[in-house]
Amino acid sequence: MTPRAVPIELDGRAVEAVAWGPPPDDAPTIVLLHEGLGCVALWRDFPALLAQHLGCGVLAYSRFGYGQSAGDPLPWPPSYLHDHARDVLPRVLAAAGIGRHVLLGHSDGGSIAAIAAGTDPRCAGVIMLAAHFFVEDISIAAIQAAGVAYRDGLLRTRLARYHRDVDNAFLGWNGAWLDPAFRALDLSPELAAIRAPVLAMQGEQDEYGTPAQLDLLHRVVQAPLETILIPGARHAAHEQATDTVLAAITRFLQDNSITQR
User: How far apart are the first and last CA of the chain?
Assistant: First the structure.
């Protein structure tokens, strides 16, 4: 399936955005929200697979500071997830002409989806992969280890292939997560505000979080909810257990009449 560039500019700053499948006027759009070190390119073939399996449109974009999007001045505040969900994401959707949509977020992107979903009645569903709703010790330890790997150079070299300003991407994310104020993150109120159906998945061996994240959903989410712990998968279950993730998403969208395929 051939991707097409979607020109978006916010406040004079370019946002890298790519779409697959039918346009927003012809079908619901799945909006992909990438992880803390992700971007459009790092979704790899997942957007095309979604569009092919589901018959929906798919939009992936790189947040400011990531991929080929414009930079985002350092340091990033501990509120950066909320800031994007509330101030930037709605303008991206408007610029891309997207109405009825599904938010599909991975890791940080899942957190952004959780924050945004309860504020937009056009959101028909929420899919979260390895999302963070509160901060765990395992998350901090993994992010500290990533900082060591970045300073050693190997991680920086790998990420530099995908990000125009790799220091902006890495240091923004790493610094915000390791700010002591970030420990106060608690998305329980935002989760309780969601009215669209929710599907949350997590790898059983996720190195950035534990099933306690899924447990919180069962305590606070009032919308229809399905959670799946995927055996053998780590933090990027959509890469490590692609067939399982695609099958779960397909069933979720069909069961909730979001797509008829």
Answer: 17
Token pair 């070190």 is found at 37
List alpha helices for the chain, DSSP H.
46-54, 80-83, 89-95, 108-117, 137-152, 154-159, 166-178, 188-192, 212-220, 237-240, 242-255
Helical packing angle, 242-255 and 46-54, nearest 10°: 40
Structural domains for the chain: 4-255 (3.40.50.1820)
Query: How many Å apart are CA 96 and CA 69, to the nearest integer?
Result: 15
Residue with tokens 């061996």: 205
Q: Are 21 and 55 in contact (CB under 8 A)?
A: yes
The per-residue pLDDT string of the chain (261 residues; one tens digit each, 9 = 90 and over) reads: 789 999 999 999 999 999 999 999 999 999 999 999 999 999 999 999 999 999 899 999 999 999 999 999 999 999 999 999 999 999 999 999 999 999 999 999 999 999 999 999 999 999 999 999 999 999 999 999 999 999 999 999 999 999 999 999 999 999 999 999 999 999 999 999 999 999 999 999 999 999 999 999 999 999 999 999 999 999 999 999 999 999 999 999 999 988 743
Residues 90, 196, 214: CA angle, nearest 5 degrees: 100
User: What's the pTM value of the predicted model, to 2 decimals?
Assistant: 0.97
Helix/strand/coil for 101: strand
